[in-house]
Amino acid sequence: MPRILALLLLLTATSGCEIVEAPAAGASTPFSGGDSAPTEALLPEVCAPVQALSCGDVAASDTSDWNSGATQVMDHYADVVGRFDGPEVVYSFTASTDGEVELGLVDPTPMEVDHDIFVLEEVCAPDHTLTSGFNTVSFDARQGETYFLVVDGYDGDAGAFEIEVRCPEAPSAPTPPPIDEPDCEGFHSDESESAPVQTTGGTLPSSVTNHTWTQPASSTSWVDFDGTTGQNADHEGIDWIHADETIPVVDVRAAAGGAVAYVRTGCPESARFGHNDEARECGSGWGNHVIIDHGEGLFTRYGHLAPDDVVVVVGQEVATGERIAGMGNTGRSEQRHLHFELGTTSEAFDPCAPTRSFDLVFPPGALF
């Protein structure tokens, strides 16, 4: 008996190892991963998905590594010509919506390792092949259906790969109409501005008869409206002056019911009584003030209000005689008083911007 054969038999008898023929030169050894190649008994005999994939997932595996979930149970696919006796890796995919799904190998190298991609439906079996491709494949998925995604080596090839699941963007929900930001509740600033002098109107608008009017503040004296129809008014409203220093707060009330159209705050006063030295052109000289819309283009303005004592906001409904502020000495003012105007305008007030003039102002004395 040759020496080498005798030595092999001796080693076999003493170690209990099985003699395995060495593969022929150039033969494929697909299951190279792990501690040892799997025996036939260890290889799965059925389609065995190794991972459930979702839209956007990228999975990496190796058809040559049985520890990565590679199997060798599929060697053909329905209506596909070719030899697919290389090992495969199988994934499952359940569609979350109807639409086209694309599978793609990431940076494939078919000249090194030739993998193909297959999509099976209903049953993880070759006879249920839905479609196939080389580096990419697409199919129309149905919501709720489970598919089996197979990466299989062609003609015995095996090796590492990455596969990506790409889905169309879900149809976007109709864009809701933009939500309008709520209008400013008032314009707060200590800056100075300049609004045009207002033009004197003729007879009172007929709409004044639709309201009950009340004098908007008590006073110790008053200065009347002064103007000529069609010309700039010399004094655009009535001043109700309250010089009694023993009364710290004098209420300013709505002369008639309506909705607050404009509120200006932020104008300072140097003193409650006497010449105001601070920001005299704040609020275009009206200082802190409120404008009330009485409908049909008719408005009233309440000027020189006290700092931190304006109690209404834009959009608020007020009744005749309802308190809106405290009398002050802000803006172009010489002492504590309320400057009251009655006017008309066809243009809405911007509650988030500096104030503006009325188109026309009228002598309001006849209302009280």
SSE inventory with pairings:
Layout: H1 3-15, E1 52-53, E2 58-62, E3 88-94, E4 99-105, E5 115-121, E6 129-133, E7 136-141, E8 146-153, E9 160-166, E10 187-188, E11 199-200, E12 221-223, E13 238-241, E14 251-253, E15 258-265, E16 288-293, E17 298-310, E18 317-318, E19 323-327, E20 337-344, E21 360-362
Parallel strand pairs: 1-3, 10-15, 11-21
Antiparallel strand pairs: 2-9, 3-8, 4-7, 4-9, 5-6, 5-8, 12-13, 13-20, 14-19, 15-16, 15-18, 16-17, 17-19, 17-20, 20-21
Concise summary:
The chain is 4% helix and 31% strand.
Describe this structure in words.
By secondary structure, the chain is mostly beta strands. It folds into two domains: 29-166, Sandwich (Jelly Rolls), CATH 2.60.120; 187-367, Distorted Sandwich (Glucose Permease (Domain IIA)). Helices cover 4% and strands 31% of the residues. Strands 10, 11, 12, 13, 14, 15, 16, 17, 18, 19, 20 and 21 form a twelve-stranded mixed β-sheet that branches. It has a five-stranded mixed β-sheet with strand order 1-3-8-5-6, with no helix packed on it. A hairpin with a 4-residue loop joins strand 16 (288-293) and strand 17. The longest helix is centred in the first third of the chain and has 13 residues, at 3-15. It is rod-shaped. The chain starts with a helix and ends in a 6-residue tail after the last strand.
Stretches where pLDDT falls below 50 for ≥5 residues?
1-37, 39-43
How many separate helices? 1
Distance between the termini: 139 Å
The number of distinct structural domains comes to 2
Mean pLDDT, rounded to whole units?
86
Q: What is the CATH top level name of the largest domain?
A: Mainly Beta
CATH architecture classification name of the largest domain:
Distorted Sandwich
Work out the radius of gyration.
45 Å
**Mass-distribution shape:** rod-shaped
Please tally the β strands and state the result. Answer: 21
At the third CATH level, what is the topology name of the largest domain? Glucose Permease (Domain IIA)
Order of helices and strands: HEEEEEEEEEEEEEEEEEEEEE
CATH superfamily of the largest domain: Glucose Permease (Domain IIA)
